[in-house]
Amino acid sequence: MEPVNLRSFKQKVRYNKTSFKRFITKIENKPPKNLDVISVSIEKEVWAETDCLSCANCCKSMTPTFTNKDIKRIAAHLEMSVAAFKNKWLMFEKKDKDWVNKTQPCQFLNLKDNKCSIYEVRPESCADFPHLTRKGLHQYIHIFKQNIEYCPATYKMVEKMMERLV
């Protein structure tokens, strides 16, 4: 497994973003019957080739959404009140009605080793990221349109899907 080269990754995204998004839209509109089966096998290949700890671009450039359950769990882990945790680390986005990080990169990311300091209690959206396989993939594949710009694993997933489904 090779470390992720973010500069190279960002160049590939700039070059291929339009065609990738067009492909994802095509899958959304007319999903292949075997999409869920194919995505499971592709996901295994993707994780065999992707070292998240060499990248952490998601933690550096995106913010998770924090559910009330996440907030209570993390605040308790940090021995803080929910109100103190929200006040110190989060802001409420009125438009989406979501609790998100005030800053980027994520305050819980250790930039020396790209590890999460609250990994065992991290937000559910972090634990599920990058959402590569779920039953009924075509119903949420639209998320890939955003994630291909931030996540090398998502980029590889779409690249491999294009090779097999075109």
Question: What would you note in describing this structure?
Answer:
This protein is globular. It contains 8 helices and 5 strands, in the order H-H-H-E-H-H-E-E-E-E-H-H-H. The protein has helices spanning 6-29, 35-49, 57-61, 68-77, 82-89, 124-128, 142-147, 152-165, and strands at residues 65-66, 90-93, 98-101, 109-110, 115-116. The longest helix has 24 residues, at 6-29. Helix 2 packs across helix 8 (152-165). The model has no long low-confidence stretch (mean pLDDT 93). 26% of the residues are buried. Strand 2 (90-93) and strand 3 form a beta hairpin. It has 2 domains: 6-59 and 137-165, no CATH class; 65-128, no CATH class. The chain has a 3-stranded antiparallel beta sheet with strand order 1-3-2. It has a two-stranded antiparallel ribbon with strand order 4-5. With 166 residues, it is mainly α.
> What integer value in Å does the Rg equal?
17 Å
Shape: globular
Can you list the strand order of the major beta sheet?
Answer: 1-3-2
Helix percent band: 40-55%
- Structural class designation: mainly alpha
Number of domains: 2
Helix count equals 8
Low-confidence stretches: none
The main β sheet shows up as: 3 strands, antiparallel
Question: Which terms would index this structure?
Answer:
166 residues, mainly alpha, 3-stranded antiparallel beta sheet, two-stranded antiparallel ribbon, 8 helices
List the helices and strands and how they pair.
Blueprint: H1 6-29, H2 35-49, H3 57-61, E1 65-66, H4 68-77, H5 82-89, E2 90-93, E3 98-101, E4 109-110, E5 115-116, H6 124-128, H7 142-147, H8 152-165
Antiparallel strand pairs: 1-3, 2-3, 4-5
